[in-house]
Write a structure and sequence with these properties.
By secondary structure, the chain is an alpha/beta fold. It is about 25% helix and about 30% strand.
């Protein structure tokens, strides 16, 4: 099984047969603490903004930061690379 994600903005290629970025091994950040963590947050357009706003509020209330990438795959790659502590995309069907 092989997974590949390319970020054309940063010219970075992630591969998941063995977790790498531009052929260099990557790993999750095992030292992250809640108040120093950065979370990736996704949102499905056309859905309720209220739940999304509550999610952001909850993250900020606990002293964390968040990023919105527009790509769940890229957020997962950044978790694997240790750049994000976690990510979540709310898909409200």
């Amino acid at each position: 099984m092989l997974g590949v994600i390319f970020d054309p903005v940063k010219d970075e290629l992630y591969s998941a047969a063995v977790a790498t970025r531009n052929d260099d091994p990557i790993a999750v950040n095992k030292d992250a603490t809640l108040n120093k963590s950065v979370f990736g947050v996704g949102f499905t357009s056309g859905k309720s903004g209220t739940a999304h706003a509550q999610q952001i509020s909850h993250i900020l209330f606990h002293g964390c930061e968040y990023r919105r990438f527009g790509s769940s795959a890229m957020m997962l790659a950044h978790v694997a690379d240790g750049r994000l502590a976690a990510c979540q995309t709310r898909i409200l069907l």
